[in-house]
Amino acid sequence: MTPTAEHEPTREALKTRGLWGWLSVVVNFGYTVFGYYGFAPPPGGMPTDWWHGRTYILDFESMGGYVDNPLMGAFLFALPAIGVCLATFLSSRSAIARMLSLSLALTSTLFAVAGYAAASPWELFSWRFTAVLALTGLSLAAAVVAPLLVASWLRLSSRARCIVYLPIFFCTMAAVRGATGTSEHLMFMISPWPLFTTLCLDNCVLVVAGNVQGRRVRETGQVDDTGRRGAVGRCKLEVLDEDDRLSRRALGRAQRNQYRAPMHQAPVPAVATPTFPHAHWDPPFRLAGKPYFSTR
């Protein structure tokens, strides 16, 4: 038995770790619900339905004093959620579990920030503001864990990929097209939905996709995801740098023309440079010791 096989976790151990991972997701969900009822202001200051907030966290002496410093209060409240999220990442290899746990931790943080700093808009927009905060946390978590989600999605069959992808696509398009910013059912006809489409999708998610995913995928675009027997799936996107890609294109043209310039183009001397302002020229490449120029 090789040393790698000796240290490889068994199927029972992986199953147990997966159960612990999903259990941590449930714990994080309970903590998010606790934060919602503790920070969400009820309509009119009096809760009349079961889903109305109670604001009991703001009544605590230890947590209610951070109204003037909402970021610090939100950070302290988010520490348990962050710890549970780290436990999910360490115990579970499921991309869905990691994404859900991270989204719940972000939602708990947003609930705390809104409870400290935006109680009036939350009371005005009621459940719509809650939905905006929850969707923002879910979108940011999906953007952070996108490489793992893509690797897991690529292991599905073509039919399963369509079943998973199309509902998400149509729901996102419906949210983007339906976010007009006005609602006849609200005061002043102002709706909070553009906060999700403009601030979250158009700004925050793009920043995360451009930085976090760009650093993770790097130049090779390689995403690894380990499974029971090591590397189960690997999504590779072959990324060539610009010079290599253009040089291969020039080499292919030279081979098709038997290392001679095309009939419609005269050979360019080595000391000459392109002087046509409207022509798009490839960079010079040296093939067989001579520079090669071409036009597209």
Written account of the structure:
The protein has 296 residues and is mainly α. Helix content is 59%, strand content 6%. A two-stranded antiparallel ribbon has the order 1-2. A two-stranded antiparallel sheet has the order 3-4. A hairpin with a 2-residue loop joins strand 1 and strand 2 (230-236). Helix 3 packs antiparallel against helix 4, helix 4 (95-117) packs across helix 6 and helix 6 runs parallel beside helix 9 (193-217). It is globular, with a radius of gyration of 27 Å. Residues 224-243 and 270-296 have low confidence and may be disordered.
Provide the fold topology.
Elements: H1 3-7, H2 11-39, H3 70-91, H4 95-117, H5 119-125, H6 127-144, H7 146-154, H8 158-178, H9 193-217, E1 222-227, E2 230-236, H10 242-256, E3 285-287, E4 290-292
Antiparallel strand pairs: 1-2, 3-4
The description of the largest β-sheet is: 2 strands, antiparallel
Structurally, the number of domains stands at 2
N-to-C series of helices and strands: HHHHHHHHHEEHEE
> What oligomerization state is this entry in?
single chain
Category from helices, strands and their pairing: mainly alpha
Shape: globular
What does the average pLDDT come to? Answer: 77
Low-confidence stretches: 224-243, 270-296
How would you sum up this structure in a few lines?
With 296 residues, the protein is mainly α. Helix content is 59%, strand content 6%. Helix 2 (11-39) runs parallel beside helix 4.
